[in-house]
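Why do we bother with holo predictions? Because pocket geometry can differ from the apo form. Keep that in mind while you read this record for zinc ion.
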Amino acid sequence: MEPVRVILLGPPGAGKGTQAARLAAFLQVPRISTGDMLRDAIARGTEVGRKAGPLMERGNLVPDDLLIALITERIAQPDCARGFVLDGFPRTVPQAEGLARMPGGGGSGWTLFEVDVPREELLRRLSGRRWCPTCQATYHTVYSPPRREGLCDRDGTPLVLREDDKEDVVAQRLREYDESTAPLIGYYRDRGEVHRIDGDRPVHDVFEDMKATLGVRA
Ligand code: AP5
Ligand code: MG
Ligand code: ZN
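The structure, written out:
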């Protein structure tokens, strides 16, 4: 069977991580989140983490060569042979070019989603997001609260606000999106189909839309 390879494009807070987790479980392929990989590297104090940390703290993108190396290694793992869901990569044109050159990163058979959400809603989602530093699960104080207030459902860890979800850092992340990531959507449109999804709806509805699109392609 041809591998199922999915790319989720969209601004900070659009719900890429939320939908990537559901899609990966549904398709039974790994979810590859570069944000989670980098936060994990920071927590472990690796060289990648030391380089990425100060940039992420300010809401700036991490250099392309570092991300390309990270993903080249990740998609070469055996669990990616049946496909994968990319969450947060590529997010610049050079990263997309890098992906196309990777073993397992080129060719056809990709599904691209552009998750569209208005700015005011992005800000509501990011300011209310809470995150588990132990297992990286994501919640929202209003939209998807944990069962016990302030504690992760899976492991009971106290939930925190992500450092880069503070207001001034969010503004910088949105600027980076407009400057470096938005042009990527045009790049991919020129090369094939990008499925635009209205992300300003309940999580379940967005997911159903994505499943329907994948069904059409399969
Ligand atoms: P990353 O972690 O990828 O952050 P991001 O792209 O800014 O995206 P977010 O994780 O903030 O949002 P999301 O779309 O995943 O939304 P979520 O599902 O959580 O990257 C962090 C940093 O790492 C970057 O700034 C950069 O420095 C670096 N980096 C990472 N990848 C890189 C790359 N390729 N190149 C260079 N640098 C890179 O949802 C948000 C909230 O909304 C949650 O609380 C959720 O519960 C809620 N929610 C989700 N969907 C819905 C819905 N439908 N209705 C209501 N609420 C919802
Ligand atoms: Mg995310
Ligand atoms: Zn947890």
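Residues 10, 12-18, 34-35, 38, 55-56, 59-62, 67, 88-89, 91, 95, 125, 128-129, 138-140, 143-144, 164, 173, 202-203, 206 surround BIS(adenosine)-5'-pentaphosphate (ligand 1) (CB under 6 Å).
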